[in-house]
Amino acid sequence: MSFPYPLVIFDLDGTLVDSAPDIAEAVNRTLTDWKLRTFDLAQITNWIGEGSRQLITYAMRAAGSDADIDAVMPGFLKHYGDTALDGQLYPGVADTLAALHGQGVRLAVCTNKPEQFVRPLLEARGVLGLFDGIVGGDTLPQRKPAPEPLWHLARQFGVEPGNSLMVGDSESDALAAHNAGVPLVLLRYGYRKQYDLDAAGAVAVLDTFPELLALR
User: Fold this and answer.
1) Would you state the pLDDT for residue 76?
2) 67 and 60 Cβ atoms separated by less than 8 Å
3) Residue 187: what are its φ and ψ, rounded to 5°?
4) Pairing of strands 164-168, 184-187
5) 193 pLDDT exceeds 90?
6) Where are the alpha helices (DSSP H) in the chain?
7) Mapping DSSP to helix (H, G, I), strand (E, B) and coil, where does residue 58 land?
8) Which segments are annotated as binding site for Mg(2+)?
9) What pLDDT was estimated at residue 53?
10) CB of 179 closer than 8 Å to CB of 196
11) Does position 177 have pLDDT exceeding 80, yes or no?
12) 3-class DSSP state for residue 109?
């Protein structure tokens, strides 16, 4: 049987790529630049998912700084760019994406990471050519959990939102899917923070990425 959704939209960080160590390095380099305390990986991972500006805002405020975030962002984005290509695909991601692509499924990425960092990372991991569309956190005026990024991708491929699938790992992904009327699959291994995945109304909650191929 073929895959039941003609379009699958994937979150990036915590879904396709384990990028938390690299993001944490960029955050801590920025904090060091401002002569502030740094944080461990677990704490910084808990701040991931709402876009880079919110991430560094959480970090700066937690470190006791009230600095203007507009002044902080250029340095943070420089460090982010220096570390962004280091994230590794989770086990089974490349083969699963290739299998879906081989079935004629259109694949897209919808992430709150700035778009400038998305294509180079996917290219470095050898999977950029499998994706037909990319929406970053700054591609549109809205970003997840708003529905517009998912609607934008569905329109791009002429697919009704209800016939698309969102695959993610967090509350932001779940809310975006629900707001857009898009069916949802969640992955347990990502950056879910304290979010209850099993109560999120997903079509499925999976332990590993290759289990996606068994959806019917």
Assistant:
1) 97
2) yes
3) -115, 135
4) parallel
5) no
6) 20-33, 41-45, 52-62, 69-83, 93-102, 118-124, 148-156, 171-180
7) helix
8) 11, 13, 169
9) 95
10) no
11) yes
12) strand
Residue with tokens 């291994």: 189
CB 117 within 8 A of CB 22: no
- State the pLDDT at residue 96: 98
pLDDT tens figures, 38-69: 999 999 999 998 889 999 999 999 999 999 99
Length of the chain: 216
Label residues 31-69 b or e (16+ Cβ within 10 Å = b): beeeebebbeeeebbebbbbbbbbbbbbbbeebebeeee
Mean pLDDT score of the chain: 96
Determine how many CB atoms are found less than 10 A away from the CB of residue 204. 15
Burial class from Cβ neighbours inside 10 Å (0-12, 13-18, 19+) for residue 190 reads buried
Q: Can you tell me the distance from the alpha carbon of 182 to that of 171, in angstroms, rounded to the nearest whole number?
A: 14
Separation of first and last alpha carbons in the chain: 8
Residues paired with residue 164 on neighbouring β-strands, in sequence order: 7
pLDDT of residue 105: 98
Q: Identify the three-state secondary structure at position 165.
A: strand
pLDDT digits (tens, 9 = 90+) for 131-171: 999 999 999 999 999 999 999 999 999 999 999 999 999 99
What is the separation of C-alpha 102 from the centre of its chain, rounded to a whole number of angstroms? 23
Tokens 């332990």 -> residue: 207
CA–CA dist 67, 79 (Å, integer): 18
List residues forming the annotated binding site: 11, 13, 169
**pLDDT of amino acid 1:** 57
| pTM score | 0.93
Which residues are catalytic, by number?
11
